[in-house]
Design a protein that fits this description.
The chain is mostly helical and 200 residues long. It has a single domain, classed as YgfB uncharacterised protein family PF03695 (Four Helix Bundle (Hemerythrin (Met), subunit A), Up-down Bundle). It has helices at residues 6-15, 22-35, 41-48, 57-79, 96-118, 138-152, 162-190, 193-198. It starts with 5 loop residues before the first helix and ends with a helix.
Length: 200
């Protein structure tokens, strides 16, 4: 599905001294694409790469190449008709606590990216905060509220059980399907006569 693995993305961001995680960065990308299908690669790079950090040319080239591939794969799977999209998360052999943390970070990134795309002039959306866009479709508003709850969640300290694994898998599937729903609803609403008229 993705030519870039979660570990590769995480290592690339770390090498470039990015403060966001791989999951959060991908969530941000998905949130913006749901609103604006033409969201450019460079805009995403500008969001993820720190302004005050200097990196060598080789690291920067690797960073750009990794994000370019991930951007291409995300656009292809999210805009395609085969429902191939899935959030970029650690493999299933990673500890459940690490996967749950990444899932929360992914939702946090999605909320930020969605808010960024719906209100570019607004200040940064804080972790777990709902984007305050006007007249969102009801289905989208519900998904954003669910994502905000997931973003605020933290893994427990007890040993994970099989039930916990099932719950995690169901959450991932819910997020996967919900992102497709948000994308569909936002693109549908952007094509209404009222939305088109407001652009002029």
């Amino acid at each position: 599905m993705f030519s870039i693995t979660f570990t590769q993305a995480a290592d690339t961001l770390s090498a470039a001294q990015c403060v966001v995680s791989g999951a959060e960065a991908h969530g941000c990308l998905c949130g913006t694409i749901c609103v604006s299908e033409q969201y450019p690669l460079q805009s995403w790079i500008d969001e993820v790469l720190p302004d005050d950090v200097e990196i060598d040319i080789e690291t920067e080239q690797s960073f750009r190449k990794t994000l370019q591939l991930l951007h291409q794969d995300t656009v292809r799977t999210l805009l395609g008709d085969d429902m191939e999209f899935s959030p970029l998360l650690p493999d299933d052999d990673a500890p459940l606590a690490a996967r749950a943390t990444a899932l929360a970070q992914w939702c946090q990134g999605f909320l930020y990216g969605f808010g960024l795309a719906t209100a570019p002039a607004r200040s940064r959306v804080h972790p777990g905060e709902l984007p305050q866009a006007k007249e969102l479709p009801e289905e989208v508003d519900e998904v954003l509220r669910d994502f905000a709850q997931i973003a605020r969640a933290s893994p427990g300290e007890s040993e994970p059980t099989e039930e916990d694994e099932v719950d995690y898998a169901e959450l991932v599937e819910y997020i996967r399907v919900s992102v497709h729903l948000v994308h569909y609803e936002m693109q549908k609403s952007s094509r209404t006569p009222e939305a088109i008229a407001n652009r002029h």
